[in-house]
């Protein structure tokens, strides 16, 4: 008798099957049912370029791009070929492989401060490794992170700072101190309150909120990059770098999202700062499972084994950290990123998209209710209700109506595969979605919703 599940493919049945065998219905909470309108496909079958297909064969233009991990486009043929070539070599070997060495040397050559590298399979592990390096090197206990940056790790040291504390060891999360991005005084207060006890400050270089001046004048491409900017003294990243150094702590940049997007050499190069440690992932291998912690030799060598008599630090030790297909994908993706000047495309397309969406909103009197914030490479859309208050219900309406038009836009992540025709398709869909948005704004928003309102990931109760 067959033990296979029934071959039902409607959304409700697929969702039920997912939740029956996978806690949360997906392996990342950002992919969960509660993050999408009810009309979104419960499962996707495949992706190619800027598009994804559901189990019924329906095609969607995608702006989720695998949680911002795909920057060249799904199933990029050169990246796939590189990964397949590594598969034929054995995937993972008993000793370190030449592919590991090539990949580490390539990243080190690309990023000046990445003098040594440890590869992993996900961002959480390498950010936790960065914290361990800092604690090992300094002998100190605490790490500081900004409250405005939503996610650094699934480990207790970070998750304990969010509303989801169930199962978290409070003693671990108490070692993480929270400050406010772009507010140096809040970080100074922590150094004053814990003198000689802070091992590191970890933050993203930028999100849709930048460390540039109040007008965001430094966050443009390519005419006004930050390194030659005369206002570096007022740049928050530069201030943090100086403050951490003055207090004997390490300066850690999490470039999981900004890396290979803001600039080929990372947002650290764009803003002209030099971190002690850094983390990469997502776009570095165009969606293949690869992450890295990297940094200056002085700090990374706490995990070395070739220093006789040195006290050992058990850093990262992962069977699949040196998996060759993902490393081959990284080598190919990095070459393509440089050859095709991918960051410039992301900035350019983002600028056109922002202008187009803002024009559509203005034409419908929605300037105060549907807004684009952040630089062109890191756009975020904000939905507000009739009173001007940020509204998840209005966000759901917009995402729902975009899906009706064949565009999946849970957030805005752009790839090299987004071109002129994709821009036209997006703006055509947005025109229709914003027409519905106007009616929902003027009436009962609930009447325009097919299902529940999307919810934030970090909440205490389902």
The H/E string reads HEEEHHHEHEHHEHEHEHEEHHHEEHEH
Biggest sheet: strand arrangement: 4-10-9-8-7-5-6
The end-to-end distance, rounded to whole angstroms, is 37 Å
Given as residue ranges, the uncertain stretches (5+ residues, pLDDT < 50) are: none
Shape: globular
What is the helix content? 25-40%
Number of helices: 15
Number of strands: 13
Biggest sheet architecture: 7 strands, mixed
Overall SS class = alpha/beta
Features:
four-stranded mixed sheet; single chain; 462 residues; Aspartate Aminotransferase, domain 1; 15 helices; 36% helix; Aspartate Aminotransferase, domain 2; alpha/beta
Give a verbal description of the structure.
This protein is α/β, with parallel strands linked by helices. The chain has two domains: 11-75 and 341-448, Aspartate Aminotransferase, domain 1, CATH 3.90.1150.10; 77-339, Aspartate Aminotransferase, domain 2 (3-Layer(aba) Sandwich). The protein is built from 15 helices and 13 strands. It has helices at residues 11-21, 65-68, 77-87, 98-110, 123-138, 156-159, 170-173, 184-193, 236-246, 267-271, 297-300, 324-339, 342-363, 392-404, 420-442; strands at residues 44-48, 51-54, 59-62, 116-120, 142-146, 176-179, 198-203, 250-254, 277-280, 291-295, 370-373, 380-383, 407-408. The strands form three sheets. Strands 4-10-9-8-7-5-6 form a seven-stranded mixed β-sheet, sandwiched between helices. Helix 3 runs antiparallel to helix 12 (324-339) and helix 4 (98-110) runs parallel beside helix 12 (324-339). It starts with 10 loop residues before the first helix and ends in a 20-residue tail after the last helix. The model has no long low-confidence stretch (mean pLDDT 92).
């Amino acid at each position: 008798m067959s033990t296979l599940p029934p071959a039902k493919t409607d959304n409700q049945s697929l969702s039920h099957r997912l939740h029956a065998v996978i806690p949360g219905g997906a392996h990342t909470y950002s992919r969960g049912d509660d993050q999408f309108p009810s009309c979104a496909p419960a499962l996707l079958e495949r992706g190619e370029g800027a598009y994804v297909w559901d189990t019924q064969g329906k095609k969607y233009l995608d702006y989720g791009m695998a949680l911002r991990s795909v920057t060249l486009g799904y199933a990029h043929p050169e990246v796939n070929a590189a990964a397949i070539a590594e598969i034929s070599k054995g995937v993972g070997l008993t000793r370190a492989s030449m592919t590991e060495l090539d990949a580490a040397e390539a990243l080190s050559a690309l990023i000046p401060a990445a003098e040594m590298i440890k590869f992993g399979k996900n961002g959480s592990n390498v950010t936790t490794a960065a914290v361990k390096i800092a604690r090992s090197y300094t002998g100190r206990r605490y790490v500081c992170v900004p409250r405005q940056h939503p996610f650094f790790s699934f480990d207790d040291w970070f998750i304990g700072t969010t509303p989801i504390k169930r199962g978290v060891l409070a003693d671990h999360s108490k070692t993480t101190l929270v400050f406010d991005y772009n507010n140096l005084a809040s970080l100074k207060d922590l150094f004053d309150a814990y003198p000689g006890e802070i091992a590191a400050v970890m933050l993203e270089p930028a999100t849709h909120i930048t460390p540039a001046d109040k007008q965001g004048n430094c966050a443009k491409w390519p005419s006004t990059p930050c390194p030659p900017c005369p206002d570096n003294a007022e740049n928050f990243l530069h201030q943090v770098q100086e403050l951490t150094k003055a207090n004997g702590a390490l300066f850690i940049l999490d470039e999981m999202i900004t890396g290979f997007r803001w600039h080929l050499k990372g947002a650290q190069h764009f803003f002209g700062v030099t971190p002690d440690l850094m983390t990469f992932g997502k776009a570095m291998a165009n969606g293949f499972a690869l992450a890295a912690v990297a940094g200056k030799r002085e700090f990374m060598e706490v995990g070395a084994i070739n220093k006789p008599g040195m006290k050992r630090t058990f850093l990262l030790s992962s069977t699949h950290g040196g998996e060759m297909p993902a490393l081959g994908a990284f080598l190919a993706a990095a070459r393509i990123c440089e050859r095709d000047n991918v960051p410039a495309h992301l900035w350019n397309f983002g600028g056109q998209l922002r202008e187009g969406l803002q024009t559509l909103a203005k034409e419908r009197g929605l300037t105060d209710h549907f807004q684009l914030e952040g630089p062109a490479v890191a756009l975020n859309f904000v939905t507000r209700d009739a009173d001007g208050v940020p509204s998840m219900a209005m966000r759901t309406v917009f995402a729902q109506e975009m899906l009706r038009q064949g565009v999946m836009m849970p957030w805005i992540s752009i790839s090299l595969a987004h071109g002129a025709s994709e821009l036209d398709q997006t703006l055509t869909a947005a025109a229709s979605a914003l027409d519905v948005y106007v009616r929902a704004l003027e009436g009962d928003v609930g009447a325009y919703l097919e299902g529940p309102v999307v919810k934030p990931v970090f909440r205490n109760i389902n």
